[in-house]
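Here is one chain, start to finish.
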Amino acid sequence: MLFVCRANRCRSAMAERLARALGLDAASAGTHAVPGLEMPEHAETVLREHGADPSAFVSRRVVSSLLLTAPLVLTATRAERAHCVTMAPATAGRTFTLRQYARYVAALPPGPVSLRDISAVRGRLQPGTPADDDLEDPFGGPIEGFRECAATIEGILRLPAFRP
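Its structure:
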């Protein structure tokens, strides 16, 4: 799966490393990333607190080939989702915000989840608001914001839908 945020230094970077710590195949990128930047110190600290390895991470910008080869694209916000779908329209059916995906999964009966199931739920549920779908960017804020962001991401990644 591919995680996408704006700069690929906090939300998507933490999501990638938290997913990997849970044994999931994950990568990340940013819609407006400056390639080659490290994570902020708070992000590294919080990842270590969660048992994830922040070492050797560098930011990269999302490109259409990353989107087209990802089986699932999870973005931090609706704006990043729109950017990804505009860049690679063929990914629309497998691109969601993290929080949107979690809402759709929660509306399904327990058991294995397919993109077809998610699409069916997407068609039945009322659209979420930005407050429902967007994950706040902790960049530049206190470590508590990074902790809250990481806890939200990890909670979503622990949903049964992510288990093989």
